Amino acid sequence: MLDPSVIRAQFPIFDEPLPNGQPLIFLDSAASAQKPQAVIDKERECYERYYANAYRGDYQFGVHVDEELEATRAKVRDFIGAPQSEEIIFTAGTTMSINLVADAWGRKFLKAGDEILLTQMEHHANLVPWQQVAHATGASLKYIPLTSDWQLDLDRLDEVLTERTRLVALTGMSNVLGTIPPIREIAVEAHKRGALVLVDGAQSVPHLATNVSDLDIDFLAFSAHKLYGPSGVGVLWGRRQLLEAIDPFLCGGHMISEVFWDHSTWAAIPAKFEAGTLPIAQAIALGAAVDFVTGIGMPAIGAHDADITAYAHERLATVPGLRIFGPEPARKGPIISFAIEGIHPQDLANLVDRKGVAVRHGHHCTMPLHSLFGVPATTRASGGVYTTRGDIDILVEAIEFARQKLRRA
Amino acid sequence: MPENQLLESENSPLSSSRPTTIPELIETFDALGDWEAQCDYLIDLGYDVPEFPNSARIQANKVHGCQSNVWLTTRTRPGNPPKIEIQAESDSMIVQGLIAVLLIAYSGKSAQEILQTDIQQIFARLGLNRQLSSARRNGLAGMVQRIRSIAEQSAAEHS
After folding, report:
1. Choosing among B90, B93, B95, which should be mutated to test the A contact, i.e. which has the most A CBs within 10 A?
2. Domain boundary among A268, A295, A322
């Protein structure tokens, strides 16, 4: 298992106390993770040593940037077990990756009567784009329901996965519940019915070994910034024949083969989907982020996640009136959303911040899921490779402090 | 707490030991010094806000733009000019404290006085603009907007 205190030393953000003098207890990695020195250095190196636009300049820096980007593409390919580098598309992040598929694949291939299958725990980024494409094409949305212990109810899969299902789009790990669906099992069932499978890997890719070939999926979307990489860049992986069959999502420079007065032809993948100037330094530093997590090893990350998740459940259970929304620790990632009777999550987030504890409050971009909770908002604590048991102890102390301040103790 | 508590306390919208005017509140805030103490004090003020009548918890009285649930209603005390009494409640105790500030600034005033109050200047003087998140500021703006539109309506009716 990894030693989070050793890992933590690689993250300069923890070097200095917060403006109020408290040490940073960062429990919002599910929103965005902090960055290790290696990632910061790589982004900086690009700007300081060889920055130029990508895939355009036949000069030394241009060539160097291209090589660095292709090196990242190859690292991402290996990291997710993709067959080919050309299938790795750099995007702005998970949201854009899903919108790309919803728009470019959905509007081309969906028609009235078709069904898109989601789950009841999807982030708005894997829900709203499908609503829009459903409205535009006459397709309809279905949802895999949840069980009372916040897992996908696979006993009811046959009710919603039908011959009309054209695509199953689901999270690899719920950003609220931490629930980890059995992707491969669902993909096999989907493919039996001729449906494609898209996985929103925003939360799962930083925590679970992800191999698109083993999972037998068709599209994977994820962001660099939750994987200890830069903000502004993400990945869409898709099977080559699918990416070749769909039209571009964004049009402009670099994505064309030939442009005539009245029409254009498209470049080969991945360029076809990389219109305009990429987030160059950020995409290059994504390679350093992949190196960082593979250096630790996904099994070690998984064991660490299991430890802090179990510890957090155990400690939070001691807080009066606290209810966790999510499965038991063994069946989830390090994401713990909870509500405390009589305490508004916004007040809680505000008061624990005084103790240096950064947690998220609100609906976490899952308003339909929160309607199942019966509370409009929750507080979410989420962990990363630098999260320690000590962080959880301070969270629990800070909650007690907030309860006293709010006269709920 | 009786529903008509607001009408009974002619002088202060909060309990007697609390500031009754904005200058008094500013003085207390200055004496407290830092935001943590001021925030604690806001929470305390929130506990003194009279209970919101259950019968007024209707959709029309919900204030939008708040992350917490906020209810706000008013009633007019006859006079020349009539005075507007504000009743409000939030499930967030920090927002409840901000409601207390709004009650001190606005409640029991005439429509004209409400419309002439420079609330942004008061918030700035209390340091609230600096300390509140943008979501909280939006929520506060939603409450101010609701109070001002009620005052505008009342001013039009009585002019």
Report:
1. B93
2. A295
pLDDT range class, residue A408, cuts 50, 70, 90: confident
- What is the token pair recorded at A138? 């006459």
pLDDT tier for residue B16 given thresholds of 50, 70 and 90: low
Find the domain containing A76 and state its range: 40-295
- Same domain, residue pair A364 and A231: no
Question: Distance between CA B154 and CA B159 in Å, rounded?
Answer: 9
Rounded to two decimals, what is the model's pTM? 0.92
What does the angle CA B7 – CA B11 – CA B13 come to, to the nearest 5 degrees?
65
Q: How far is CA A275 from CA A69, A92, A266, A269, in A?
A: 15, 11, 11, 11
* Catalytic site positions of A: 365
Query: For residues B53 and B1, what is the distance between their CA atoms, to the nearest angstrom?
Result: 10
Does residue A195 share a domain with residue A124?
yes
Distance from CA of A363 to the nearest CA of B (A): 10
Using DSSP, how many helices (H) and how many strands (E) does chain A show? Answer: 15, 15
For chain B, the straight-line distance linking the first and the last C-alpha, in angstroms and rounded, comes to 35
Of the candidates B39, B47, B67, the beta carbon closest to that of A346 is on: B67
Instruction: List residues bridging with B84 in a β-sheet.
Output: B76, B109
For chain B, list the domains and their CATH numbers.
Answer: 5-158 (3.90.1010.10)
Burial A173-186 (b: 16+ CB within 10 A, else e): bbbbbbbbbebeeb
pLDDT at A34: 98
Q: Does residue A349 share a domain with residue A312?
A: yes
Nearest CA in chain A to B135: A346
Residues A233 and A160 occupy one common structural domain: yes
Separation of alpha carbons B127 and B123, rounded Å: 6
3-state SS record for B12-71: CCCCCCCCCCHHHHHHHHHHHCCHHHHHHHHHHHHHCCCCCCHHHCCHHHECCCCCCCEE
Cα A293 vs. chain centroid, distance in angstroms?
15
Listed residue (A367, A355, A359, A318) closest to A337, CA to CA: A359
Nearest in space to A49 (alpha carbons), one of A64, A33, A28: A64
> Is the confidence metric ipTM above 0.90 for this complex?
no
**Polymer length in residues for chain A:** 409
